[in-house]
TrEMBL record:
The keyword Hydrolase applies. The keyword Hydrolase applies. It comes from the Bacteria. This is Thioesterase superfamily protein 9. InterPro entries: ACOT13, HotDog_dom_sf, PAAI_dom, Thioestr_dom. NCBIfam families: unchar_dom_1.
């Protein structure tokens, strides 16, 4: 069985990836028993839908969902995983806010893992939800 990833190890993997580091993600909580990972995503001007709008573009929202879902499943396997598929439902605009992503592992199977990710604004309102599947087969 692979070693579990703790918060510091996940953060190191985030910081070691140029794209994820650019997103500025920071780990807030890891709960292996519940299969939950909580991550903060700060707003950046590069994420804006329109210049000086303060509104998140859907692309960075999707990237946060995919990344946090990946590491929710991956924290149980000791590594990052390739994405098979994912979807996003945008529920309301995210404007002038950081986002908190809460990922819950729904399946941690031998070949496929599934995670649901909820994105909340600073006021605790749900702004987007996503579900993703990841390949969990041993790499090697």
């Amino acid at each position: 069985m692979s070693a579990l990833l703790n918060a510091e190890q996940i953060q190191a993997k985030f910081d070691g990836s140029p794209f994820i580091a650019w997103l500025g993600l920071s780990v807030r909580d890891v709960n292996h028993e519940q299969g939950e990972l909580t991550v903060l995503a700060p707003m950046r001007p590069e994420f804006e839908r329109g210049a000086a709008s303060g509104q998140w573009h859907g692309g960075p929202l999707a990237a946060v969902i995919d990344t946090v879902g990946d590491f929710a499943v991956g924290m149980l396997l000791g590594r990052g995983l390739p994405t098979i598929n994912f979807r996003v439902d945008y529920l309301r605009p995210a404007v002038n806010t950081a986002l908190t992503a809460v990922a819950r592992v729904r399946r941690n199977g031998r070949s496929v893992g599934v995670a649901d990710v909820d994105l909340y604004n600073d006021q605790g309102a749900l702004v987007a939800i996503g579900r993703a599947t990841y390949a969990t087969l041993s790499q090697g």
